[in-house]
Amino acid sequence: MSRKVSIQSLADQLGLSKYAVSRALSGKTGVSEATRARVLELARALGYRQSTPGSSAVPTGNEDQSEPPFALICMNQLNRGEPHYWQRVLSGMISACNERGWHHAIVSPSLGVADEHTPPERAIAPHLDWERCAGVIVMGAFPHAVLQRLAQTGRPIVLVDHQEPLLNCDTISHDNLEAGITVARYLMSMQCRRIGLITDDGRAASFAQRKIGIELALNHFHADSSRLTTFREWNIPYENGEWIDQLAATIKNMPHDERPDAWIGVNDDIALQWMNKLQEMGFSTPGDCLVIGIDNVHAAATSSPPLTTVNLCKEELGQRAIEALQRRIERPGTPKETVMLSTSLIPRESA
């Protein structure tokens, strides 16, 4: 039996006021079209109905048929406002859901100790009509305890840009190893002899995979052993902006012949911030040193100079996640799959 969904519960999940949700549902002015679309989409996914008998706050266009299924998308709260990567992956998921006539609901599960005695559906999203949940898409890294609780719902799970070998589920990600190999081999082809990597080891599995790819390229693809390329890594606290000035001070104190002649940002955001700092310090790019990133965010093409990078197909990643979920629903007994989307180099003026 479906759980009754209130306007307040919609407001709580969307982070909106009850007033804004009410006006969005009733079609009144006072809310943006983007907000109205978010409210209506969640209301459909949760099976919301007005309390007035015979009325429906969310027109479906076909009231006689049962509500369509929805994909439950688990998204880390920290990534919800990130426009360059996760929002683009999410847009691909939503598009793929729309193509199939599915709805979607987005939650940010954060389970505490007390949740182990609560049914998993209620602990994760108590207001959902779980009978219509087609499956779960997990975007990025979540603690193993959260993934275990998701598995206890009995719904198929697809992990996006994250791997959990102890969980029997499908995984969709970019070939981050290939991305690391690509940037390193490109810089080697440009005759770079001192390569510096700026990364944050503890932030994401994709960062670690890119670093491994770089090291593989440097160790196994070097054609001229008489001109070895040296490699040095700077591990930074990515979310803390102070790393830029701290690294700049380190570079200023290094002998000229030890400074990297090429820099790799483990993602474009790091590469762009560091390239701007190098220019403030009087280093020209690409005159004094090359800079390359990984991601191909929109800002990479408009920076000065435009950033050489490796393209990751973000919207396609989201599309393929929904495809994997549909396949798992249709073929539940097949072996789990790991799908890697290939990457491609985009040479620009920075390297």
Automatic annotation (TrEMBL):
Asked if the Swiss-Prot or TrEMBL record annotates the protein with the keyword Zinc-finger, the reply is: no
Molecular functions per Gene Ontology? DNA-binding transcription factor activity; transcription cis-regulatory region binding
Q: Does the keyword Iron apply?
A: no
Question: Which InterPro entries does the record associate with it?
Answer: HTH_LacI, LacI/GalR-like_sensor, Lambda_DNA-bd_dom_sf, Peripla_BP_I
Q: Which domain of life is it from?
A: Bacteria
According to the entry, every stretch annotated as the HTH lacI-type domain falls at: 5-59
What Pfam families does this protein map onto? LacI (PF00356), Peripla_BP_3 (PF13377)
Q: Which CDD domains match?
A: HTH_LacI
Keywords on record: DNA-binding, Repressor, Transcription, Transcription regulation
In terms of PANTHER family, this protein maps to: HTH-TYPE TRANSCRIPTIONAL REPRESSOR PURR-RELATED (PTHR30146:SF148), LACI-RELATED TRANSCRIPTIONAL REPRESSOR (PTHR30146)
Q: State the protein's name.
A: HTH lacI-type domain-containing protein
Organism in which the protein naturally occurs: Paenibacillus xylanivorans
